[in-house]
Amino acid sequence: MAKIVVDVMLKPEILDPQGKAVAAALPRLGFSFAKDVRQGKRFEIEVDGDPTPAQLAEVEKAAEKLLSNPVIENFTVRVEK
Amino acid sequence: MKIGVVTFPGTLDDRDAARAVHHAGGEAISLWHNDADLKGVDAVILPGGFSYGDYLRCGAISRFSPVMEPIIDAAKGGMPLLGICNGFQVLAEAHLIPGALTRNHELHFLCRDQKLTIENTNTAWTSSFTQGQEILIPLKNGEGAYMCDDQTLAELESEGRIIARYVGENPNGSRNLIAGITNERGNVVGLMPHPEHAIDSLTGPSADGLGFFTSVLKAMVR
Amino acid sequence: MALDTVAIAQANPNTAQPFADLGLKPDEYASIKQILGRRPTSSELAMYSVMWSEHCSYKSSKVHLKQFGEKAVKSDALLVGIGENAGVVDVGQGYAVTFKIESHNHPSFIEPYQGAATGVGGIVRDILTMGARPIAIMDPLRFGPADAPDTRRVLPGIIAGVGGYGNCLGLPNIGGEVVFDETYIGNPLVNALCVGVMKHSDIKLAKAAGAGNLVVLYGAKTGGDGIGGVSVLASETFESKGPAKRPAVQVGDPFVEKVLIECSLEIFAEDLVVGIQDLGGAGLSCATSELASGGSGGMKVQLEKVPLRDPSLSPEEILMSESQERMCAIVEPSKIARFLEICEKWDVTVSVIGEVTDGKHLEITWNGELIVDVPPRTVAHDGPVYNRPLAQPAYIDSVAKEVIKVPIPSSADEIKATVLKLAATPNLADKSWVTNQYDRYVQGNTIQSQPDDSGMVRIDEKTHLGVAVATDANANWSYLNPYQGAKLALAEAARNIATAGAKPLAVTNCLNFGSPEDPGVMWQFAESVRGLADGCLEMGLPITGGNVSFYNQTGTVAILPTPVIGVLGVIDDVRTRTPMSFDRAGLDLYLLGETHEDLAGSEWAYMHNQRGGIAPIADLQREMRLIELLVAGRKKKIFTAAHDLSQGGLAATLTEMVLRHNTGATIELESVGISLLSETPGRVVVAIDPGQTQALTNEASAQKIALTKIGVTGGDALVINQASISLSELRTAHTQTFPKLFG
Predict the structure, then answer these.
(1) What fold characterizes domain A3-80?
(2) Element (H or E) spanning C594, and its range?
(3) Closest CB to B103 among A17, A66, A67
(4) pLDDT > 70: what percent of chain C?
(5) Do the domain assignments include residue C629?
(6) Taking each helix axis from N to C terminus, what angle separates C149-169 and C727-742, rounded to the nearest 10 degrees?
(7) Full residue range of the structural domain in which residue B197 is found
(8) CATH of the domain at B172
(9) C522-553 pLDDT, tens per residue?
(10) pTM of this prediction?
(11) Up-side HSE of residue C282: CA atoms within 13 Å toward CB?
(12) Is the ipTM reported for this complex over the cut 0.90?
């Protein structure tokens, strides 16, 4: 069943201490590939049937109003099969 | 003088805020989140805690509670409104004041007695203090870093809307050591530390916190 | 898998059942068959397996714990004794206080944050279920060596879990312990204590009384959390390779519990429940069987009425689930409507799942089919009782012969170096890194918290009546002499109550030991229980309840015996308490109590890898006289400050006192090395205004407590004989240890 996915990330200029902590922990575990890490949130929204453009527009509004805080966060909306 | 103290599910410091109001000489009226009735109060406090478990984001769900509608209207009309800690987060989510509160820069919850300077004594909640007065009140939170864009920061600074600043080391990563701010009108104040836990030296680090509550009672008399 | 009903069990007596996988021994399985007169259904087997596990049934400890009843102190203050969810004591002015300590050791090794968090959640519900508002928590914690990699793995998560759950519940953390020792590597100890307050008339008990009354489940929905946690985890030791028993850890949601607390207190205030039980270890199996046992014995439950988070759970899994934040209440039909209204107000999930009957059995059906039909006492109370073999281990005699060889400082440089070394050692260093992660202010009634000797909370804002709580253990002494070790820990906790001038009133305990299948461990346990029971009887302090945690060992190496003793005291006016330390010059410092050469089991000996010797012998009569002196001294306003001596001896106590309010002291000691390092029990340092000298002398003489002037307060250094340590240097040594270790 397809679902609508909303990814929320802190705006690039906002300090992300959790991302920094993860970036610091990786090398301690032997992983040296990461230049930087930022941590965000992912919402998976189930609807009946395949998501319609109208529903996607609604999700955009919901993402702006509730799922993200536009003062400090950006979001993207997409459909995942 | 009636001051409403709101209880959301998960609010923790409502009884402490009510106690502080009482100590300052006012009458505290309990307001339930689900009830859009302000019961004729003259001012409102949004207290500290973990409303809705800090789900989604701190204060993100509380701001849509039924009680918030009349509060926002009244605040726009000039009613004094104080948001403490989680309450500050609700005010920010409701866009009654600019900016947002994010995770402490060192990631840990931090509880400590914090020195602040009061930098604006013209608000409804700070008139009892003197300009530049240093006070000691508890800070206790995990998401207390005040963030805003450069433009907002410049505005806050130039308009003197930063009402309190941390003294010494930055405890949580707030921009410009901001501990509390006010709106343009000076009736809505958001404050990260907890004045309701500094009303006597028996249970707190000082009695410095009482000033916030006596201020609003004075404002209401006028 | 087809539903295994009572009818099927009766018709198919020889079906093979996986009782061993569920943690039951063959003789226990046979016993169940005998009780039921047939083989158990799979649901019944699940219930017996969790309820007869060590953690729930206390099968290895019961025979020893009954001493607490046999040697029980007759005390009018005890309103509810051992046997209920928590003990309750009368503290005056119509108030009753309930308190208890519990362990959550094994889950915290596996998942530090959630293990600690759900440990806090569980003990808080135990207090709530007595009808009380929880008002404070404490966390005695024990870890492997501070610099060990596994300590770095578990400690931050455990602290974050205690803080994360407790802070979100709105409970001030008023104290605890952080202790490091090689013995706990692989077996960290997470003990959590909760205190609650109520009026006498509010006390609730776990009984299902009144045929026709409804059985109501409310709180979080039931999922697959911690299935078999008690039987699989707490009743087995870890394999040396590491945590294999992964799936059985519960996940907590403190917001749900906070709402549960407020909802429950409103329900209690309107007197809507006849009996109530929280769902902890063994979940619904425990709640239903205990409630039924507490009543006349009859209960019918329709298991399909349990609200589920995961609809795929089988009846057996529902019965074993340890989903958090759930309570089970017995409600009269005439009150159920109001009960449901209050749950709706707080948005708490609620479901009527059964009713009390006048039969003698607990009957559980699943969509009409009978799957459990048992006499509830056989599940909840009449589990197996083991008289495990015990034998004094060989080490007891050999360690007693060990001679302690440690450097004893005498020159100024040596004194200074020793004091600084003790100030910085992890067991004695400043713990702000930990305690700053805990809210100590919420509820606005905290009078004392870390680093004070006891946590103190005001319970009446008008009269300023308050309670004080302290927890203590000394595994080093318990190792050398378990009988004395328990008495000494009791004395220390009681003394910690008394230094502020509060009067000790009641005792709880958390007994952390290795495997009861090891006769040496069993002997340590039996001796510790005997010591605690004898000690409490002698001191007139009733034991209100507690917890036993066995199987704290990896492979064949058990932890040092660690009985943690919690003492609750009362103070009539918190404003008059004696503070821990002084903030001005010109006060005289006195040492109450005699000092002998007691280095066995001391921190200094531990730091030099000397674990042997002879533990001190507790003199409880003298401890009681010292307590009298401290309480009387507060009432007569003799003391400006009082702080007890324990690990780290006088050196640690002086360090803590001068740093508390940044006021130095000048100290003169004879036999300075021993005086600083010895850990002779029953001693306190007090500061008095010189005008109180005669009053102090009189009181000490009346109580026959040795009194020695050791110095005066003032200055910006700790001066001991010719050694001078600036406060800033001392502070640096004391406060840098934890940030350096844990970041």
Answers:
(1) Mth169; Chain: A , (3.30.1280)
(2) none
(3) A17
(4) 97
(5) no
(6) 100
(7) 2-221
(8) 3.40.50.880
(9) 999 999 999 999 999 999 999 999 999 999 99
(10) 0.95
(11) 28
(12) yes
